[in-house]
Design a protein that fits this description.
Radius of gyration: 33 Å
Number of domains: 3
Number of helices: 6
Largest sheet: 12 strands, antiparallel
Structural class: mainly beta
Strand order of the largest sheet: 27-28-29-32-33-36-37-38-39-40-41-42
Distance between the termini: 80 Å
């Protein structure tokens, strides 16, 4: 005999209805009257599931026939099932629970089928865990007076499903009918997946992961753990917030003020969602405004413009290595302006980093909306599918000078303007439930070619349609998800953004920011000495910079061709890694008499930088830099250095560095060091710094104050205090 169990699901308006069929071919050796059964099969099923609930796996597994199978369909849109190996059944099913209730079983001779719902976690084939609600279909066979389990089928249970059991035997007429055609797959829409990943284990001191469908949990100290919600389909980034996920998933809405009144709820509501699919992570928000649009502050559309931070804005940070130090920072205003920043060590923002991402804003009767899409391939993160990230969200209301965050961030961390609080990653929430796509073979190739045809009859010999050309290539290879290799040959920087004009009225050289794309990603890794968060750190205007990439390809204001080179950046465990080697070409001068002289010889520039995370927010590091041709003597110039930054509590810092240079003929007065202590509290603070730069310390591809300057030797201190503000309640 053939029998059929049919499960149909309801779908939303505008979605083609789909159905899912599970067929068992049950061959009965003989049909017995159900009334003759000594033990009702429903009682057997209830006993097994009660044992499963209680964790009595031996009692539950005693219901299985020898050779019984357990099949799992892991994804709703993939009909293929995987069999759990017999030796793994105990562990795989031990975290399932059944809510006691009515059990409906259909008996077909000596076979019986039960279909019901269970909830819990099941290991996935890739080594992760899938958490959610499951359809549990159980096939039992009558053996020696007992009903034994022959097969169990588990499949994801989307919200709104119903089950229909068809118990009538197939007649000859119906058996002859062809099988119905498989339904067309429903379109993938941005709704929450029925099965959400089980969060990874959390470190000590972090609030527990929220239990789905909750998306946030908090503790009394203002810390938070947030769930990223997996989607069945992509979000259309249009700023409308009309996908089903926004109605299904509760928002993150309890933002906490940093300014003007630290620690109290934000004065206006912000609703935010963090979701993801196979390719992108999305951050969306509905911004409630008490005033009409005419009173909003929104007047900037230029990318990475500083003025965007002085508008009403919404932003986010992702600490993708969960090291509580480094982050990617994105924010926008009601006009949809784009600002992207790479943050190193809770400071050192790199505004020249420009990844691929998208943002759209919209309007509604109560304010404005925003949808941000960030492709996983645009950022780097730790290896593995299951991830643990840091995250924070920020809203700024400029007319109130109000800055609020998802987690509690102190005024001292935010700075006088409030803008720095979002990059204090040690105060960020923990993001769980995130599964990223496999790395694959990630490589980007950017070739270029230049051709010209010149005619010049004023020269001797005259030129007539003289062809010329050049070409080169840049390659970026993602060796792993957390290590990137950049290669360049015959590099061309013709499309690089020009420097902003500056007027220099001092006797010291200007230092312009690096804007060449080859040198931009993870630029902060090469910073020496390390910079402390919020305080400006050590170093700064007077301390030397042993590595300054603008020295490459420029000499005395003239361009020097770059023949080729490579650059490796990323993170290996707790260690930031940066290595670079560039070869520049030779440039010759020809005087009026035709004499040829070398203006810039062939030169190799090499730097290696390592920085290891220690303690909660501290690090130690080392740097080696070499220029194969010194500018003041024959031979090479090398720089060696070590630095450390130690952060205690939230606002107390100790930092220092030691470095020395090596040039042929110079063996003394070639070192530099600095020590700094700082406390940067909200109401009070102090700092003390001692710096020494000896006269013959001169990193030949860094920047350093000229010998003899009083800025090479300094000891300074400062202190500050202010009264509590009545308006701020402090």
């Amino acid at each position: 005999m053939s029998w059929q169990i049919e499960k149909r699901r309801r779908v939303g308006v505008g979605t083609a209805a789909g159905s899912f069929l599970v067929c068992f071919a049950l061959h009965s050796m003989g049909v017995r009257d159900a009334a003759a059964q000594e033990v009702p099969v429903e009682d057997e099923v209830r006993g097994a599931l009660t044992a499963l609930n209680a964790g009595r796996m031996d009692e539950y597994l005693a219901h299985f026939l020898e050779g019984a199978r357990v099949l799992v369909t892991y994804h709703e849109d993939n009909g293929g099932s995987s069999q759990i190996p017999p030796e793994d059944v105990r562990a795989s099913l031990s975290k399932l629970t059944w809510t006691p209730g009515e059990i409906i079983t259909q008996v077909f001779g000596s076979n019986a089928v039960t279909v019901l719902d269970v909830a819990g976690a099941i290991p996935s084939p890739d080594g992760g865990t899938m958490l959610g609600r499951w359809r549990y279909a159980e096939l039992r066979t009558r053996m020696d007076g007992d009903w034994k389990i022959a097969q169990v089928d588990l499949s994801p249970l989307p919200l709104g499903n119903t089950v229909t059991l068809s118990g009538a035997p197939a007649t000859a007429a119906t058996a002859a009918q062809p099988a119905p055609a498989a339904p067309a797959p429903a379109p993938r829409i941005a709704k929450a997946s029925a099965i959400q990943p089980t969060p990874m284990a959390l470190p000590h001191g972090v609030p527990p992961a929220p239990i789905w469908p909750a998306v946030i949990s908090r503790d009394d100290a203002g810390n938070a753990t947030v769930r990223a919600v997996r989607l069945d389909g992509p979000i259309e980034v249009d700023g409308r917030l009309d996908e089903p996920v926004y109605a299904e998933v509760p928002p993150l809405d309890d933002f906490i003020q940093t300014l003007p009144v630290e620690g109290v709820p934000a004065t206006e509501l912000t609703e935010a969602w963090i979701t993801y699919d196979e390719d992108n992570i999305y951050v969306s928000a509905r911004i409630h405004e008490e005033v009409p649009e005419s009173e909003w502050t929104a007047n900037e559309m230029r990318r990475d413009a500083n003025q965007v931070g002085n508008n009403d804005n919404f932003g986010l940070t992702f600490d993708t290595y969960y090291d509580r130090r480094n982050a990617y920072f994105f924010y926008t205003n009601p006009l949809g302006a784009m600002v992207d920043v790479q943050v190193t060590n809770e400071g050192s923002p790199n505004f020249d980093w420009n990844p691929v991402w998208d943002v759209r804003t919209g309007r509604w009767e109560g304010g404005w909306t925003v949808e941000i899409k960030l492709p996983f391939k645009s950022i780097r993160y730790s290896p593995g599918s299951s991830q643990l990230w840091g995250v924070n969200l920020r809203r700024a209301i400029r007319r109130k000078n109000e800055w609020s965050h998802l987690t509690a961030v102190s005024r001292a961390a935010a700075g006088a303007t409030g803008r720095n609080g979002i990059i204090r990653m040690s105060r960020a929430a923990t993001l769980v439930g995130l599964e990223v796509p496999p790395t694959g073979f990630a490589i980007d190739v950017k070739p270029y070619g230049i051709a010209s045809l010149a005619t010049d009859r004023t020269v001797t010999p005259a030129l007539e349609n003289e062809p010329d050309g050049d070409g080169g290539v840049d390659v970026k290879w993602g060796i792993t998800q957390n290590l990137a290799l950049d290669l360049t040959y015959n590099t061309d920087f013709a499309q690089v953004e020009v420097d902003e004009q500056q007027i220099n009225l001092s006797r010291f050289s200007l230092t312009f920011p690096e804007k060449r794309e080859f040198f931009l990603e993870s630029r902060g890794i090469f910073s020496f000495p390390a910079v402390a968060a919020g305080t400006g750190g050590m170093g700064g205007g007077t301390a030397p910079q042993p590595f300054y990439s603008r020295r490459i390809g420029l000499e005395a204001g003239r361009l020097v061709p770059i023949l080729g080179g490579g650059r490796l950046t990323g993170k290996v465990g707790p260690v930031d890694v940066g290595a670079l080697s560039i070869q520049t070409g030779e440039v010759e001068d020809v005087d009026a008499l035709g004499n040829v002289s070398t203006f810039a010889p062939l030169t190799n520039f090499t730097v290696v930088r390592l920085r290891a995370d220690v303690l909660a927010r501290s690090n130690v590091g080392a740097l080696f830099a070499r220029r194969s041709r010194s500018l003041v003597a024959s031979g090479s110039n090398e720089t060696y250095g070590a630095d450390g930054l130690f952060a205690f509590f939230q606002d107390f810092y100790l930092s220092g560095y030691y470095a020395r240079t090596q040039t042929r003929g110079v063996s003394t007065n070639n070192q530099s060091y600095q020590g700094r202590i700082a406390w940067d509290g909200d109401l009070q603070g102090f700092s003390a710094t001692h710096l020494l730069v000896e006269d013959d310390f001169n990193p030949r591809w860094g920047s350093c104050v000229a010998p003899g300057s009083d800025r090479r030797r300094s000891t300074c201190g400062r202190a500050r205090a202010r009264r509590r503000s009545r308006s701020s309640g402090r």
